[in-house]
Design brief:
Yope Regulator, Chain: A; alpha+beta; 7-stranded antiparallel sheet; elongated; 7 helices; single chain
Length: about 240
């Protein structure tokens, strides 16, 4: 399975690692320079400060950018090229730069993604999720619809909230296409209206922003906080390491 539109190395993400490295490295280098100047010459202290600065920049680019944006993404992309994911392409979904299969199936916006649950070094559990954007005309029998979808073979759990019907695959599920088709049939037969991306954003904008802030806060790593300096960076959401 090939997708020429997916870039393993997203160059636009470089500044998200480079800028905190430059600013945080400069502050740490300056602090190290001041401390070093007490016992060393000005030239030696300046060299020590520059070494710390360059070291922090190198750390952010090598460990941060290349680890998150190349090594981990490349591993995940390789997984998504396995045979069992080809049925998603047959369903009409395409792999995007966020390494998610997205598309419109039977008028419903569908998003399929792989989440790597970390267990220990070099050991992960692949968990698969599907989001379907929809809105019930009536909630009278909606719980019954949810329960019916939960009973589909290969589905471990299902729930609806804020315009998104989410399904969690069981860990050993191999047929990734059929559960989506059966779920869409259930939604359509019970008059659960599909939501376009714009309608979903307009209807749930506040909740989207709230969730995004919570998600970004979880992925934000503190680099340095001293006085007015508060240096942070946000980890790539594609990984859980």
């Amino acid at each position: 399975m090939k997708n020429k539109h997916v870039h393993i190395l997203r160059k636009e993400k470089f500044k998200e690692y480079f800028v905190p490295g430059v600013v945080g490295g400069f502050v740490l280098g300056l602090i190290f320079f001041i401390i070093s100047s007490v016992q060393h010459s000005m030239a030696e202290s300046l060299q020590n400060g520059l070494t710390v600065w360059m070291g922090i920049i190198f750390l952010f680019i090598s460990v941060g950018f290349f680890s998150e944006e190349w090594y981990l993404r490349k591993r995940k992309f390789k997984k998504l090229n396995a045979v069992k994911y080809r049925s998603l392409l047959e369903l009409g979904l395409t792999l995007n730069d966020d390494l998610e299969f997205v598309g419109v199936v039977n008028h419903y916006n569908v998003r399929f993604y792989l989440y790597e649950k970390y267990l220990k070094p070099k050991k992960y559990i692949d968990q698969h999720y599907v989001d379907i954007y929809c809105l019930p005309k009536s909630f009278d029998n909606f719980q019954e619809v949810i329960d019916n979808i939960k009973s589909i073979s290969g589905i471990n759990n299902a729930a609806w909230g804020f315009g998104i019907f989410s399904m969690v695959y069981s860990e050993k599920a191999e047929n990734l296409k059929l559960p989506i088709e059966l779920a869409l049939k259930q939604l359509s037969n019970n008059f659960i209206m599909p939501l376009s991306q714009s309608d979903w954003e307009n209807s749930f904008e506040k909740e989207i922003n709230k969730r995004k802030k919570i998600e970004d806060r979880k992925r934000t790593k503190q680099v340095l906080k001293t006085g007015k300096f508060d240096i942070r960076y946000v980890k790539n959401k594609d990984t859980n390491t």
